[in-house]
Write a structure and sequence with these properties.
Length: 87
């Protein structure tokens, strides 16, 4: 676990395992595609999909339909928005 510390700030411990990319295949609108995200983002997407009563594929398809850029980036931003909103 690496530690990061800014002047006068508390130490932040980062788990290297959380920083590696994991590739998963999903089906979006009857088309298979692969996505690479860090494990904490996959875990958050699964939790948020379950909380919404959706499958992971359905949630990703919904985010995909609303995005304007890279899908992996859109998923990360969406997860951060949900966490910031307290979901």
């Amino acid at each position: 676990m690496a530690e990061v510390r800014a002047e006068g700030a508390p130490t932040i411990a980062l788990d290297p395992g959380d920083q590696r990319l994991e590739k998963h295949s999903v089906t979006l609108f009857q088309h298979r595609t692969s996505l690479s995200l860090e494990p904490p983002f996959w875990a958050a997407l699964r939790r948020l999909a379950a909380a919404r009563g959706q499958s992971l594929n359905a949630l990703i398809a919904e985010i995909d339909a609303a995005r304007s850029g890279n899908l992996s980036s859109a998923l990360r931003v969406w997860v951060l928005q949900q966490i910031s909103a307290g979901r």
